[in-house]
Amino acid sequence: MNAQNFADAATDSTAGTERDIKMVARDVNVYYGPKQAIKGVSIEIPTDEVTAFIGPSGCGKSTFLRTLNRMNDTVSGARVEGDIRLDGENIYDSSMDVVQLRARVGMVFQKPNPFPKSIFENVAYGTRIHGLASSRGEMEQIVEQSLKRAGLWDEVKDRLNDSGTALSGGQQQRLCIARAIAVDPEVILMDEPCSALDPIATAKIEELIHELRGRYAIAIVTHNMQQAARVSQRTAFFHLGHLVEYGDTSEMFTNPREQRTKDYITGRYG
Ligand SMILES: Nc1ncnc2c1ncn2[C@@H]1O[C@H](COP(=O)(O)OP(=O)(O)OP(=O)(O)O)[C@@H](O)[C@H]1O
Q1: Which portions of the chain are predicted below pLDDT 70?
Q2: 78: which of 44, 68, 210, 266 lies 20 to 30 Å off by Cα?
Q3: With a 6 A CB cut-off, is 99 part of the ligand 1 pocket?
Q4: Who's near 57: CB < 8 A, 6+ residues apart?
């Protein structure tokens, strides 16, 4: 696809609503050795909305999510074909700085993975690596603001020197979100961020996703269709490596276009 087509694709007008588009993927294939896990997927990730990736286990949701910040580069034998752009820039171009890319497109994993460092250092880490704070004062400000945005500040402000790993699971996940936010990303990818959490911690993360929406483009993989319905405005349904259907969440859950989507959301398989 040429640059003009990408520019055209950068405004999505499906369902009659104009959207700013942050990322555009075109004809993406992903292989693990000889096995093809993603087959010809094209999608736009809007700037101001939450996009949910749903589908049965093994359909390729996580694989596709990881193509958006080149996390698949770290998997031996994985190969990505196609074109993925962030604000029109090809993220697979050889000139792309992958460390910078992963700051711009941050990621939160299924299992909270704080570093074995203090709460403060967990949040400060990326800021330090990317040289984003010019003084201790500025660093403290960034850490405070990130913890506030992640809804964790009030719970940890008096114990910033305690280990991040000593927090509860839900707090650890919010700490990981604060860590992603600290480097001022444009996109946040979340790979089943609540699957290891209890219902109360899950509700807090969902509330947080609502608050983060609009500030960051968010894509979230979830097994939980109620969660997709609660947190997202756009939903992408994957099946056997294909993107079967993509559209407004409310439309997809009330009036799916494809039989396979209908079967999945009514619990017929998966
Ligand atoms: N590192 C890997 N090496 C080889 N095959 C892999 C690897 N990671 C994933 N796969 C395969 O790719 C396919 C898609 O997996 P993926 O984890 O992306 O699916 P998913 O929809 O996220 O599944 P789940 O919901 O169970 O997490 C599966 O067949 C899986 O076995």
Answers
A1: 1-18, 269-270
A2: 44
A3: no
A4: 223, 270
The SS3 call for residue 256 is coil
Taking the C-alpha atoms of residue 255 and residue 29, their distance in angstroms, rounded to an integer, is 28
What was the pLDDT predicted at 11? 47
Give this complex's ipTM. Answer: 0.97
CA 22 to ligand 1 centroid distance, Å: 25
Q: What's the confidence (pLDDT) of residue 268?
A: 79
Q: Are 106 and 185 in contact (CB under 8 A)?
A: yes
What's the pLDDT at 19?
77
Sign of torsion, CA 67 150 202 19? negative
Assess whether the C-beta atom of 75 lies below 6 angstroms from ligand 1: yes
Task: Specify the CATH number for 3-265; select among 3.20.20.70, 3.40.50.300, 3.40.50.970, 3.40.50.10140.
Answer: 3.40.50.300
Residue from 63, 72, 73, 223 to probe ligand 1 pocket by mutation (most atoms less than 8 Å from CB): 63
Residue nearest to atom 7 of ligand 1 (CA): 32
